[in-house]
């Protein structure tokens, strides 16, 4: 075999394997996990952030007003206790550990909660992108409702896209960023239509801000919202089955069909359980026991059944609501005993891998 033939064979093999690897990776992008980069501690950040969460008042019952806040350290605003302790989201060693775990969980896209330019969640974004890239993961964005109107949102998105969208780890589907818009219903559908419809008077379509905008479906009536608001799709976010219409798995067939009929993307979201009474002591009604992983599996199976393009996982580390798959350990603080995962702190990382594999086998 001469040199030229050997070279061509080697090139063919290289292209074949890199294409196969890209396809394998691409399919992992269909599993996306919500991630929170808002934690801080005194040694890295000068003070606690979020571990010392306030105890939230009830919207109508004054009995729950002025309940104070958790201190941080052994006393955190969460029903579970992290194996990594009161970590800082700005610590690159922590970011590395998290990205490694996410890679091991079989997920391809990390959906980072974003509260705008100069916010705490923007501080270390470049580190998240760089480290995610090393683990062959992508970063998408969960836009929190920090803006007052769509004009302010456009300014903020302009910063986000100009600053980060050329990074290799910035997730795009068919060349467009995928942006989850939390509490999208708080702005009227007519306002959204001006920004998101092809012919809207302030349209972002075919501009640098064009993206796949995914709104939050909460109540049944949101069907009307998504009919005319210009969103490219919708997601359900909440991990508490039955909490709202969108997070009730029995409604996902209807929502999947609605998405198909309207050429929209439907992203059902699943979680391992729900437990938030450390910050909402009045919210026991929405508690969902993990039931040793059975709750997670049941929700995942319901999502797989409707054959969606993507499944969203709530969450990697939303400790306040007890939806995290990040490792937790047994711990007591005074009279309070934190919940845990049993013998294996990595149980939900492994379980996520098993369940994402099950989903992706059908793709």
From TrEMBL:
<keyword id="KW-0735">Signal-anchor</keyword>
<feature type="signal peptide">
    <location>
        <begin position="1"/>
        <end position="22"/>
    </location>
</feature>
<keyword id="KW-0378">Hydrolase</keyword>
<keyword id="KW-0812">Transmembrane</keyword>
<keyword id="KW-0732">Signal</keyword>
<dbReference type="Pfam" id="PF16317">
    <property type="entry name" value="Glyco_hydro_99"/>
</dbReference>
<dbReference type="InterPro" id="IPR026071">
    <property type="entry name" value="Glyco_Hydrolase_99"/>
</dbReference>
<keyword id="KW-0333">Golgi apparatus</keyword>
<keyword id="KW-1133">Transmembrane helix</keyword>
<protein>
    <submittedName>
        <fullName>Alpha-mannosidase</fullName>
    </submittedName>
</protein>
<keyword id="KW-0472">Membrane</keyword>
<dbReference type="GO" id="GO:0004559">
    <property type="term" value="F:alpha-mannosidase activity"/>
</dbReference>
């Amino acid at each position: 075999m001469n040199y030229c033939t050997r070279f061509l064979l080697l090139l063919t093999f290289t292209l074949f394997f890199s294409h196969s690897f890209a396809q394998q990776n691409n399919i992992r992008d269909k599993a996306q996990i919500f991630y929170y980069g808002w934690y801080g501690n005194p040694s890295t950040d000068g003070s606690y952030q979020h571990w010392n969460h306030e105890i939230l008042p009830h919207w109508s019952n004054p009995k729950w007003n002025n309940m104070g806040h958790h201190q941080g350290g052994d006393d955190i605003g969460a029903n579970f206790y992290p194996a990594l302790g009161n970590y800082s989201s700005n610590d690159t060693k922590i970011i590395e550990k998290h990205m490694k775990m996410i890679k091991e969980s079989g997920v391809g896209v990390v959906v980072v909660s974003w509260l705008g330019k100069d916010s705490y969640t923007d501080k270390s974004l470049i580190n998240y992108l760089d480290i995610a890239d090393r683990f062959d993961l992508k970063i998408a964005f969960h836009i929190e409702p920090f803006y007052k109107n769509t004009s302010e949102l456009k300014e903020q998105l302009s910063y986000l896209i100009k600053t980060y969208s050329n990074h290799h780890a910035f997730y795009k589907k068919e060349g467009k960023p995928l942006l989850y818009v939390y509490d999208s219903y708080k702005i009227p559908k007519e306002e959204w239509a001006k920004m998101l419809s092809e012919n809207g008077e302030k349209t972002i379509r075919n501009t640098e801000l064009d993206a796949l905008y995914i709104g939050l479906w909460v109540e049944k009536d949101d069907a009307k919202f998504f009919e005319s608001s210009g969103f490219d799709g919708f997601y359900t976010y909440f991990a508490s089955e039955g909490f709202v219409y969108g997070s009730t798995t029995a409604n996902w067939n209807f929502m999947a069909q609605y998405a198909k009929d309207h050429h929209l993307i439907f992203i059902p979201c699943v979680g391992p359980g729900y437990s938030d009474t450390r910050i909402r002591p009045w919210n026991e009604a929405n508690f969902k026991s993990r039931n040793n992983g059975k709750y997670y599996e049941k929700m995942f199976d319901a999502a797989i059944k409707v054959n969606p393009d993507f499944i969203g996982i709530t969450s990697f580390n939303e400790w306040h609501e007890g939806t995290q798959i990040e490792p937790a350990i047994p711990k007591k603080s005074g009279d309070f005993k934190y919940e845990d995962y049993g013998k294996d702190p990595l149980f939900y990382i492994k379980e996520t891998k098993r369940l994402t594999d099950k989903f992706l086998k059908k793709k």
